[in-house]
Amino acid sequence: MTDTFEEESFDEELEFLESEVLNLFAMDNKGYRRGSFQSSTSDEDMVEVAGGTLDFSMVDDVPPLDREMVEGFSSYNGGGMNGASKMMDFLEEPLPGVGTYEDFNTIDWVREKSRDRDRHREITNKSKESTWALIHSVSDAFSGWLLMLLIGLLAGAIAGLIDISAHWMTDLKEGVCLRGFWYNHEHCCWTSQETTFQDRDKCPEWRSWAQLLTGNQEGGALAYILNYFMYVIWALLFSLLAVLLVRGFAPYACGSGIPEIKTILSGFIIRGYLGKWTLLIKTMTLVLAVSSGLSLGKEGPLVHVACCCGNILCHLFTKYRKNEAKRREVLSAAAAAGVSVAFGAPIGGVLFSLEEVSYYFPLKTLWRSFFAALVAAFTLRSINPFGNSRLVLFYVEFHTPWHLLELVPFILLGIFGGLWGAFFIRSNIAWCRRRKTTKLGKYPVTEVMVVTAITAILAFPNEYTRMSTSELISELFNDCGLLDSSKLCDYINDSNSTKGDDLPDRPAGPGVHMAMWQLALALILKVFITIFTFGMKVPSGLFIPSMAVGAIAGRLLGVGMEQLAYYHHDWGIFHNWCSQGADCITPGLYAMVGAAACLGGVTRMTVSLVVIMFELTGGLEYIVPLMAAAMTSKWVADAIGREGIYDAHIRLNGYPFLEAKEEFSHKTLAMDVMRPRRSDPALTVLTQDSMMVEDVEAIVNETTYSGYPVVVSRESQRLVGFVLRRDLIISIENARKKQDGIVSSSVIYFTDHSPPLPPSSPSMLKLRSILDLSPFTVTDQTPMEIVVDIFRKLGLRQCLVTHNGKLLGIITKKDVLKHIAQMANQDPDSILFN
C-alpha cells in the first residue's frame, strides 16, 4: 500500500516538473540564453581617430559574430544565477553579439574577469569527468605560455627584419654596393681585399652616387653637390612612400603608438589599431621613415608592432579571443617584448611595461612578460642584425670607474634633461594642437615632405646629423681606444704615458675641436626639428631622438671635463683622484648619462629607464650615475609640468584614460558629479515589467546612452539592475526574427516570472538573461575621491547613485574624467569619446 502511494506520488511530481519545464520553455524565447556572449571581434576595422574621420570600409578581417558558438552554458551576468533553471540553460541557444563592445567604448573589467573565472571553473569541474577533458584543461593552462612563445618569436623576427632593412636603406642614400645592391656599406666592405684598417669604410666595391653618375673616382664640388642632391631625393622618396602608405592603407600606423596602447590597456576599444593591416603597414613604413633621415626612432613603434603581433595571435586561442580583459594581459606582455627587441633589454622591457604602459598587471602577467621578452631577445640575437653579436647598434663597455665628484656634472645633465623634456613636451603639444585645429592637419603629405626636405638639407653638411641617429649615439657612447679613427678620438698622443690598454687624459687635437662645433650644431638641429617631427603621419618613435639630444650634450660636457682635468689636474677638485697621466674622465659615460637624463625628462620613466641603460652598457658600476641623472631630470621636469609626453598626447587626443598615478584631492561628492543635474531632464530608466517593445525601442532611438538602469517602477525608483544598450538592441532584434508573437505591443519583463496580463495580450519578451543584477552603486554622499578610486581599481564603465535605496543618478567614466579635468582648470569637453 505504501509502495503504491509512493509510486503515484513520484509520478505526480515527475508530471509536475515536466509541465513546469514546458511552461518555462514556452514563456522563454528560444533564441535566448542566460549568459552573455564574449567579444570575438578583433581590432581590425580601419578607423582614423586623430584626423577625426571614421572609415569602416575595410572591415571583416575576422568572421562575423554569428558564425561563432559559445562554449559552455554558464556565464557571468551581474549576479551570477538569474533564476532560470539549469534545464532551461541547456535548452536555450547562444545569442550572438550579447556581451560584446562597440568601437570607442570601455570594457567592463569586472564582468570580463568574472566570465573568465566561470570559464575556468567549468573546465576544472569537467577535467574530473574524462581523460579528454583533463587534456583540454592542461592545454588551456598551457595556452598562455605557448602564446607568449609565439609573440616573442614573431616580434623578434620582425624587429630583426626592420633593423636589417633600415640599415641597408639608410646607406642607400649615400651609395650602392657593386657586388650586390642588397649589401649595406659595412657588409660590402667586409670581404674586400683592398680595405685598410684606417679607411675600413672605403672600398672599391662601394660607390657613392657621384662616382656612379660621373664615373669619376675623385671628389670635388660637383661630386659633393651630386651626393647632396641624391641624399635629399632619396630622403624625400622614402618619406613620401611612408606617408602615402599610412594615409592610404592604415591611418593608425602613424606616430609612436604608445599613448593609444596605454589607453587600450586601460580598457578602451579602438578597433583596427592592433589589426593585421596596421602591423603590415607599420612595419614597412617604419623602415622607410627611419631610412629617410627624419629625427625619429623605431623603438617606440616597435612596442606597437609587438602589440599588433600579440593581438593577432590572440585569435588562435579561444580563451583570449573571447575575453577582452585576458587579451589585455597578453598585450602587456607583448609591450615588454617590444622594448626587449628595441633596446636588447629584456628586464628593462618588463619594467617598462609595468611602469609606463600597463593598467592591470597581475603577477602572472609579470612572469609571462618576462618569458615573452626573453624569447624575443633570443630570436633577435639569433638573427644578429648588426653583425656584432649584440642586440643593439650602440652597445658599449666602459672600464674606467667614476669618481664621487663626477656626480655634480651628472646631476647637471639631469637638470638639462628635465628642462629639455619639459620644453619639448610643451612645444610639441602646442604644435600638434595647431595641427589638429588649423588647416595644417588637412595636408599631412605636404607637412611630411617639407619637414623631410628641411631635415635632409640641414643634415647633409654635418657628418653627425647625416649618419643615422643610432650610429650617432653609438659614436657618442664610444670610449676612445688607440685604434679609433673617429674625429672624436683625435687627441694628441704622448707615447711615453701610454700604459697598456688604458689611455690617459690627453689634450684635444684639431679633430676633437672640429667635432665639438659640429656636435653643437647637431644639438641645435635635433632639439628643434624633433618638435615638428613627432606626431606627423609617419611612424615616429621618441626614444632615439631624445637619447641623441642627451648624448650630444653629455659628450660635449664630458670632453669639457676631460680637458679641464688635463690642464688643471692640480686643482683641489682633481687633486686626489686625477693625477697627471691618469685616465680619469670617460666622455662616453657622460654621453650615456645625458641620454638617460633626456629620455627620462621626456617620458618620466625612472626604474625601467635605468635598467634599460644599464643593459645597454653592461656596466653595473654605472647604475648610481644613471639613477642620479634619471631622478634629477624627473624632479625638474615634474616641477615644470606633471605630464610625460605620452600622457600629454592622451589628453590632447581626448582618450578616456584614468591615470592611476595621480591623486584626487578635492572634496566633492558623488551627487556633484552624477547625471542628471538639477536642471537636466529626469534619468532615463526602464521598468522591470511594464514597458512594451515599442517603448524600449523609442528610448533606444531617442538616446545615445550605452546602458539603462532598470527599476521596479517609475514611482518607487527602486533599483533592480542595469542593462547595456547593445545587448538590448541585439536581443529585441533577435526576438522579432526568431520568436513567434513578438510585436511592438509585447511587454518586456526583466523578472523571474511574467506579470499578470489579459489572455488576449501578445506574447511577452523575457530579457532577464541580459540584466546585470549587481551593478556597482554608491550613495549620493560618497566622496568623489572614493568614487575615483573605485573606477581606477575596478575598471568600471559606470556606477549608479542611490539615496535611501532609491535610484538618483549615474556616474560614467566620462563624467569622472570631465570632473577631474574641471578640477584641474582644464577644458572638460576635451574628453572626446564615451
UniProtKB/TrEMBL annotation:
Primary residence: membrane
InterPro entries with a match to the protein in the record: CBS_dom, CBS_dom_sf, Cl-channel_core, Cl_channel-5, ClC
PROSITE patterns, alphabetized: CBS (PS51371)
Signal peptide: none
Record bears the keyword rRNA processing: no
Superkingdom of this protein's organism: Eukaryota
UniProt-listed Pfam families: CBS, Voltage_CLC
Compartments it resides in: Cell membrane; Endosome membrane; Golgi apparatus membrane; Membrane
Bilayer-spanning residue ranges: 142-162, 221-246, 279-296, 302-318, 330-354, 404-423, 443-460, 515-536, 542-561
Membrane-protein topology: Multi-pass membrane protein
Gene Ontology MF terms in the entry: antiporter activity; ATP binding; voltage-gated chloride channel activity
Sorted UniProt keywords: Antiport, ATP-binding, CBS domain, Cell membrane, Chloride, Endosome, Golgi apparatus, Ion transport, Membrane, Nucleotide-binding, Repeat, Transmembrane, Transmembrane helix, Transport, Ubl conjugation
Residue ranges constituting the CBS domain according to the UniProt record: 674-738, 764-830
GO cellular component terms, A-Z: early endosome; endosome membrane; Golgi membrane; plasma membrane; synaptic vesicle
UniProt cross-references to CDD domains, sorted A to Z: CBS_pair_voltage-gated_CLC_euk_bac (cd04591), ClC_3_like (cd03684)
Reactions the enzyme catalyzes: 2 chloride(in) + H(+)(out) = 2 chloride(out) + H(+)(in)
Keyword field contains Transmembrane helix: yes
Family recorded in the similarity comment: Belongs to the chloride channel (TC 2.A.49) family. ClC-5/CLCN5 subfamily.
Functional summary from the UniProt entry: Proton-coupled chloride transporter. Functions as antiport system and exchanges chloride ions against protons. Important for normal acidification of the endosome lumen. May play an important role in renal tubular function. The CLC channel family contains both chloride channels and proton-coupled anion transporters that exchange chloride or another anion for protons. The absence of conserved gating glutamate residues is typical for family members that function as channels.
Subunit structure: Interacts with NEDD4 and NEDD4L.
Designated name of the protein: Chloride channel protein
Organism: Eublepharis macularius
